[in-house]
Write a structure and sequence with these properties.
By secondary structure, the chain is α+β, with helices and mostly antiparallel strands. The chain has one domain: Nuclear Transport Factor 2, Chain: A. The chain is about 30% helix and about 35% strand. It has five helices and six strands; from the N terminus they run ααββαββββαα.
Length: about 160
Amino acid sequence: MEVSQIPVTAPAGQPTLPSQQAQLLVRQLKDFYAGFGADSLGQLDRIYTQDVEFRDPVHTMHGCLALKAYFKRMSLNLQHYSIRYLDEHIGAESAWLSWEMDFAHKLLANGRILTVRGMTQLRYTTKVYSHEDCYDLGALVYEHAPVVGPLNRLLKKRMAR
């Protein structure tokens, strides 16, 4: 079974999107993240439901207001950000996106640009009600944190023997 054929149940009473509408919603989401910044947060209401559940390896947030606050804090610390979408599978009620994100954060790797690969699972009706990002948290944080990074690299080197 292909990813785009995996059945997903929408919340009770919610309509599902025809393929063209689903593709438009996913395009709006990808455009939002391609232009991510503090000044673009007003677009979230067009993409996400008010009770959206957003998960990544660090956070779980409930609600569009919490998501806006999280993104606002995150955007203040980013020195560089870009995203490249590698692949997508869009169904009537869910989508999977693979991506590479380049970013620089003043507290990681002395502000150098880092690249992280990941995947996103979206579930939607007329808007996204569930967004889950999956990525290697070690590649994102543990490898580049001032104290933990060298220890993590040493452990990986020893485990590879």
